[in-house]
Fold these 2 entries.
Entry 1:
Amino acid sequence: MKPAPVAAITKVREADSAPDAPVLRTATINCSVRDLLFAANSSLIPITPCSGESALSSAAFFVGGNPATADTATRWWLEALQTSPEADLISLSGWLGDSPELSAPGHWLPAGRAKLQQIASEFCEVGATLGRRSLLPHAAHLLSDASAALRLVLRQHESARIDSAVGSDESPSAASPSRQLSLAMCPALLLTSSMLSHANEHLERILSITGPHCAFIFACDARIAIANESNSPISRLRAPPTARSRSVYMQQVAEELLDDVTLTPCAPGKGCIDGRYLGSLIRTFAADCSTLVLARDERASTLEWLGLSDC
C-alpha cells in the first residue's frame, strides 16, 4: 500500500495533538454495515447514541430498501416518520442492477442521473421541515463517489435557498426554510478494487471533500470478494484448460480478474483498510459535524482499530 502524502499525515497529526480537538459523538446500529445494503424495504434500523453521551438532536433511523426501483420509497420514508415525526432519516441512493454490491452501466446515463436527482429531491421534501435527510453513497450505486455527492448536496442547497427566497417573496408569513440534503458516509463503501494500491489517498479525498456535509459517518473495514464466483476466472482456473494453452489461459485470467474482484464491507481488521489512518481522517475532517456510527457488537474493536478508543 502506497504511503499517504507527507502533507496529509502532518495535517492529521497536528489535528490529533491539538488541545481543543473536537470530541467525536458516537452511536450504534444493531447490525453490520453490509446488512444495511440488504435491509428489507421500509425496514427501520435505529441509530442509538452510545451510553453516557449526549443524545442526537432528534431520533435517527436508517430506512432500508432500494429507492431507485420502487415507486413507494416516499411511502417508506413517511412510515418511518410515524415513529418520530422529527427524526433524522438515512437512505441509500439506490441502484439499477440486480445486486446492491454490483454496479450497472445505467448509473452514468442521463436517466440514471435524473433518477438520482429525483430521489434526492423527494427525500428532502418528505415530512416536516425538522430532521435531516442523509443519503448513503456506495461505489456501485447511483451516488457513487465523493465528488458526485458534493455536487448533489450543493445543488440541493442552492435549490433550497431559491425555494426559500421565492416563498418569502410570495408570502412572507407562510415562508419556511426548505430542508437541505446531507450525507451519511461510509468511506469503505466508496473504495473499489482498483483503488487498493492508493487506498489512503482515496480515503483522504473522500473525507476531505464530504466531511463538512456529513451528518453521519459509518465505520467498517472492506475485504476483497469475487463477484459472480461461479463464473469467475478464479473458479474456471480450478479446472485444467482444454482448448488453449495454459499460458494463454492465465493471460485471460489476469485480464479478466479485475472486473470480477469487488470490495465488500467487513469487520474491523479483517480487510484492507488502514484503520488508524481512517480514524485520523475522521477526526480531522468530520468530527465537528458528524456522528460516528458503529456496529453495536463491534463498537470497542472498531474504536480500537480506528485509534479512537478515547471517544
Entry 2:
Amino acid sequence: MFTMSWLKIPRLKRALPLIALVGLGSAQAQLGVDLDKLTVPQTYVRYLPPMVDAARLVKADETCVTLIAGEVHTDRSTPEHPIFRFSCRDDDRRLFSWLVDGLSLKLLDESRPEGQISFADLAAERERERARDLAREQERAKVREQLQALQDALGQMDEEDLEAALARRIQVWRACRSALIERAQTLAEVHWLTETMPEPEMVGDGVMRFEVDFNARDPRRQLLEYRASCVGSTAADTELRLRPRVEAVQPAD
C-alpha cells in the first residue's frame, strides 16, 4: 500500500537547494508568511514556492485576518495540478477555509463561470460593491434632503401627498436612469460624473427635468463629454436627450 509521507516545511529546508532555502527564507522575512503553518507531502515538494505565494495572497486578503494553516488538499490534487487549502479566521474570529489553485493561484469558487477568481479581481469586486453601497446611501440621503425641501416648500401639503410627490419623482428618475444606461451601452469607458439622483428642475405643471453629466469614448476612442437631459412627469412619458456639455452650458440666445 502506498503511504503518503507528510513533512512540515521547516524540515524540508535541509533537503532543498540553497537557492530554494534563500527564496523561502526571504518569503518568510519579507512577506510575513509563517512557514511553520504550511504542510506538504513529499510528492508535492516542488510546489513549495507557489504554496508560499498562495499563502501570501490569502494572508493579504482583508477577509483572512489570521492565517491558521495551509496544506495540499490531496483529495482534489494530482502531482501535476495541486490544490492548496488554507484555514483562516475572520474579523469575528470565525473559522473558514479557502481552496487555491496551485497553478493559477486563483481562489476556487464554483459560483463563478470559470470556477475561480483571482485575488486581485476579488478585491476589485469588493471595492465596486462598496462604491455601489456608498452611491445607494448617498442617493437615500439625497432623497431625504429633497423630502425635507419639499416639506419646507409645501408646508401645507399633507404627509400622503408629500410621499406621493416624492415617489413620483423617484419613479421618473429611475426611468430616466434606465434609459440613459441603455443609451450609454453603445459607448465605451463610460464614467458617470453624476452618480446619485440630482435635484430636478420643475419645468411645467408636474413636469421635472433631471440632468446627468458623464464622459465616454466613441468607437474611434475620442473623448466625449456629455450632459443628459431627461424630462417627464411620470415614468411612462420620459424623454431623454444627450448633448455635449460645452453646448449644454452655453446660455440660450
